[in-house]
Write a structure and sequence with these properties.
mainly alpha; Growth Hormone, Chain: A
Length: 413
């Protein structure tokens, strides 16, 4: 039985049955969280230096950076659906995820030798393809291992562990660059080491049949395109069109506060600390009050982050922007997968998650490219204010489309 996008928390009886059937957070969820922790140390240590490196060292304009950031945001979308379909068809999401993590590890090796914009873009694309392959199968394994009544909590625990890595990675980059002002190559070597560890943990400690659902009847794509899924894709994609890359927010903060360049990676750490603190509480809140409600309304803190970045002139303004940005991710990142997983049959769970993540990734790619042009044309403050206003309006429209209201019910069978 698959579920709708209505807004009722699971019944008390279902929660009681879930408590007796399995632990609220399964061991597999924690193991996958450790894999994500190690991998995020690797990827975020690189992404934390990339905007500054490309704009200040390589000398790219904001238009060119917007193109590269668009690749970073959206290339994974090229393979997400294919990866999800292969995982569902084979009933082996663990192996598809392992291939994705392995490709990103190889991209870390290639990045050590990439010296120009073209080669860097190619390596980034390969890394993002690896992310596209692994994300939906990993989230599918989390869903399969979790009690449906506590699915938001499970994703919150996973994302909390993931965010520990996302906070450590930029902090490592900051410490390396603090000690070695030109130590970009050292950051890349450290990044590769953690990527290798993540692949080893996944290969050794996650069963090969984890999350697999087999059936003898052929799978058809139309089974994944349920009415709740189509509504979710429409709203999530439209909101993502107004979600610009974090690098732009951090560059705006750097410009407005006149902070030294070596502090740039610390901005990522600030966002991730807030995300880490709120991931589990907001996941539990989503289980109680409605996951679609938290998903849509969670974009309001993002609009607030844009406005805070416009007016920040010192530390309080910068902290407000980082806190609001971290709150946005805690409300939406794992919750999107949790909602998508419950709108399709179990046999197409990975494909359903991949569909939602693909739409969001493609929309964010377009948003980054478009915002780079907008920044260049009218300036950072004006561009951020314009996007913040549009996002606030989009949240209201999304609430109507998904029929979010105080009397609605979430995830009813």
């Amino acid at each position: 039985m698959y579920l709708s996008l209505s807004d009722r928390p699971a019944s008390a009886a279902n929660r009681a049955r879930g408590r007796t059937a399995r632990p609220r957070v399964a061991r597999l969820v924690v193991t996958l969280g450790v894999v994500s922790l190690l991998t995020d140390i690797s990827s975020e240590s690189v992404s934390a230096i990339l905007p500054l490196y490309l704009t200040s060292v390589v000398g790219l304009s904001t238009v060119a950076y917007g193109f590269v950031d668009g690749l970073y945001q959206g290339v994974s979308a090229l393979v997400r659906i294919a990866g999800g379909w292969v995982a569902d068809k084979s009933g082996r999401p663990q192996q598809v995820a392992l291939a994705g993590y392995g490709l990103s590890m190889l991209a870390r090796v290639a990045l050590l030798f990439a010296g120009g914009v073209a080669s860097i873009s190619t390596v980034i694309s390969a890394d993002r393809i690896g992310k596209g392959l692994r994300t939906a199968p990993r989230d599918s394994m989390i869903t399969a291992a979790s009690d449906p009544a506590h699915l938001g909590r499970s994703f919150g625990v996973h994302r909390a562990l993931d965010t520990v890595g996302a906070a450590i990675g930029p902090l490592l980059a900051f410490l390396i660059l603090w000690g070695i002002p030109d130590g970009y190559h050292t950051v890349l070597v450290v990044s590769l080491g953690f990527a290798v560890l993540g692949v080893v943990v996944l290969g050794l400690f996650v069963p090969r049949d984890a999350g697999g659902v087999r059936r003898h009847e052929p799978l058809h794509w139309r089974e994944a395109l349920t009415r709740p899924m189509l509504r979710l894709l429409l709203v999530a994609g439209f909101l993502a069109l107004l979600t610009v890359g974090d690098g732009f927010v951090y560059l705006a903060l750097l410009n407005s506060t006149d902070a030294a360049a070596q502090w740039f990676p610390v901005l990522y750490v600030g966002t991730n600390i807030v995300y880490l603190a709120l991931a589990v509480p907001l996941g539990r809140l989503a289980d109680r009050v409605g996951r679609t409600r938290v998903l849509v309304l969670g974009h309001l803190p993002l609009a607030g982050a844009y406005l805070a970045a416009c007016v920040a002139t010192g530390l309080p303004g910068a902290l407000a922007a980082l806190g609001l940005l971290g709150t946005f991710y805690a409300c939406t990142d794992g919750v999107l997968a949790a909602v998508a997983a419950r709108t399709v049959p179990d046999e197409l769970r990975t494909s359903g998650i991949a569909c939602a993540q693909t739409v969001v990734a493609l929309a964010r790619m377009g948003a980054s490219i478009g915002f780079g042009v907008l920044w260049f044309a009218i300036g950072p403050q004006q561009a951020l204010v314009l996007v913040a206003g549009g996002l606030a309006l989009a949240v209201g429209a999304g609430a109507v489309v998904l029929r979010i209201g105080p009397s609605r019910q979430q995830d009813a069978t």
